[in-house]
Fold:
Amino acid sequence: MDKLTLKYGKTSVSFSFKNEYYEILKAAKIEPLSDPEQYLASIIDNPSGFRTFDQIFSADDRILIVASDITRSTGAKYFLPILLQRLNKAGILDAQISILFALGIHRGLTGTERKAIVGEEVARRIAMLDHDPDNRDQMEYIGETLRSTPLLINRNVLEADVLILTGNITFHYLAGFGGGGKALLPGVAARESCMAFHKLVLKSANFGIKPKTYAGQMENNSMHEDILETVNKLSPDFLINTITNSSGEIIHAVAGKLMEAHNKGCNFFMNHCSVHIKEKAELVIVSCGGYPGDINFIQTHKSIEHAFQAVKEGGVMIVLAECAEGFGNPTFLNWFQHAERESFLQNLHVAFEINGQTAFSTYLKAKAVKIILVSSLTREDVTIMNLIPAANIREALSISKDFLGGNDFTYIIPDGTRTLPIYKSK
Structure:
């Protein structure tokens, strides 16, 4: 009998696991940086695609830094002070710099959350504001993409002399990877733009899902192509993207011209965070890596998406996700009124919502495997999603035993947000 510990919210869950037939799936072990400030300074001072950092700026430039919200772990409190130091050295005053949080359609941030993201010093020195996707006065139309996504972009982005994007590279279950140009679309786009962008996952006919929109896939991915078009229209000047572990510690970073730096980061992430498996398991136990990966169910779904790649059809998945902030969108649960696949898809086409796509993806997985959710959500709400509620990991294991009989081959995924199992049948 082995004792295992998995993260759950801001705490952890320990349990005894009697089954000897299990394997732990996790990213290649990379030690946290012993001196993150020195490492990040070196990355910023030697950017991809530039000779030096200071060649990008002039002393009278107005600088806009686009930063991720609380649902992403970027380590911004480590790299932002270094970035500000370099900008000051180039003759740029703090008063010329502002930070825009790329919320997409997420909720606004609290003052405490802003400080937690950027650190006390940066919060004290630099003006900060939230992107509001529903404030049309804040937006400016810059055209549309080849896939007819209207681009209404936060005016602060367009008025800046220099645009710096920051973010975190991880898998994205539709656009391939996070980070890069996602800071712009959907990060600082109007709700209308965000909706059209996410609807690209749907086929225009036959009520189906496009085949190339999945985690780790960028080539021929219509959502990634939309992001690249937006990047080309807005021409950001500099990118800083990090890769963090489940404790929020930076293990890798890239900086420089967006395409070059982001591609380097994605290659690193794919090589270190994808895990090739020889077979699928009857049982998969997955944690989201704790907060913020399980801050709400919509974020949790990313880990469910990854773990789903490792479980046999008809098998069982146990998900540990606190979901302290509920579903992440007040209309999410409404989508499960559609009991049949075709009805669900038809309504997505007619009345598309971003969270509706996540709900549909959850619906499909719950039809293929039994998903047991350990969370703070009510049992009634979990059941509405066609998932099976459990009060704790012990109850979840007991339920899984009723379905499988026990002693089944099992994968355990301690950090589902950052771990993508890859299975290729022979």
In short: Residues 200 and 222 are 6 Å apart (CA to CA).
